[in-house]
Amino acid sequence: MAERYSSFSGGGRMWLLQRVTAAFLIFVLAFHFFQLHFVQHAADITFAGTQARMEQPVYYATMVLFLVTATFHGVNGVYNALINQGLSGRLRSVVKWLLVIASVALIVQGIRVANVMAGVQLT
What we know:
It is a single chain. With 123 residues, the chain is an all-alpha fold. It has a single domain, classed as Up-down Bundle (3 helical TM bundles of succinate and fumarate reductases). The chain is 76% helix and 0% strand. The chain has helices spanning 13-39, 47-54, 57-84, 89-118. Helix 1 crosses helix 3 (57-84). The longest helix has 30 residues, at 89-118. The protein is elongated and about 50 Å long. The model has no long low-confidence stretch (mean pLDDT 89).
């Protein structure tokens, strides 16, 4: 039988965060699909409607948490998949920091867009 290998050390902090973010994403994705595919049909989605939803503090907070959680979950999964494929040494460090920089840029830009959609102005 093949031996199981994972770059996650069972019971570690990153292992736990990967599972917690997965559970959160399942819930938020279900909410997202229900809201934007059943309550409102895709053809009825408008920019003004998106702005109206984003102006609601709970919806705004949920979408920002969705952005941060999905970014962490996806990037952490990709990084660990690369480690499982044998990424090591200096290249591992370079890839890790490139993914961190890309993640921060994605989150910052996503929050900027969310703020514009919600009518939040930072001075």
